[in-house]
């Protein structure tokens, strides 16, 4: 979308200079997601270079956030401005995204740019963030403290612990997965894996951890190897992805799987 200049009190050089021809869209990589960031990709559709000295993204119900990047965009080129999107304000069961826009300082002048989200990056982040908030209002999730070797030594057996912290719907553990080095598996083939009922306070779900890779490259991932993705649902609603990290005791138990 073409940038619109914001009126100011500059001289005739500012008022007669051509407005910057800018378009913007939201993109996100897996690395961005792990860092809690998105990128506003700004394209210079004009015929002269444009320097972007400041960019503030407004994407309600996410809070306004400022990019720390500063760049000159050549004609026909595009540059990404990284923004930490923060936690949205979640209201109702299905919060809605408002239109996204960016206020920028382009060549020393204020401009307003509509930000395209046709890939639904922000809508997906809103659903993910608000789902996690709803889940956290109802249940605390952790890995159990006791992990013991399974017969044969190919796995260690422990649990996923669900502790109800607020009144609310049933909480269902739908899926478990793993890291580069280790994966979690349910102890039986139940589908879904287990459900904490509305009147239950505690649920211990038996799982086993199995080593996937014990090579030096995999082990070099360090603490990331003990972060496990889990998927839950509330009252048969859409699945909510969260991550749970094992503490030192869990890490030590899992590391025995890679010992000779």
* Category from helices, strands and their pairing: alpha+beta
Instruction: Give the domain tally.
Output: 2
* Number of strand elements: 18
Q: Quick one: CATH class of the largest domain?
A: Mainly Beta
Query: What is the distance, rounded to the nearest whole angstrom, between the alpha carbons of the first and last residues?
Result: 60 Å
Give the second-level CATH assignment, the architecture of the largest domain: Sandwich
Quote the average pLDDT. 91
Order of helices and strands: EHEHEEEEEEEHEEEEEEEHEEH
The fold-level CATH name of the largest domain is Immunoglobulin-like
Radius of gyration: 24 Å
What fraction strand? 35-45%
- Spans of at least 5 consecutive residues with low confidence: 6-14
Q: Could you please describe the fold and organization of this structure?
A:
It is a single chain. Helices cover about 15% and strands about 40% of the residues. It is built from 5 helices and 18 strands. The strands form 3 sheets. Strands 1, 2, 3, 4, 5, 6, 7, 8 and 9 form a 9-stranded mixed sheet that branches. Strands 10, 11, 12, 14 and 16 form a 5-stranded antiparallel sheet that branches. It has a 4-stranded antiparallel sheet with strand order 15-13-17-18, with helices on one face. A hairpin with a 5-residue loop joins strand 11 and strand 12. It has 2 domains: about 5-120, Immunoglobulin-like (Sandwich), CATH 2.60.40.10; about 135-260, Immunoglobulin-like. It is of the alpha+beta class.
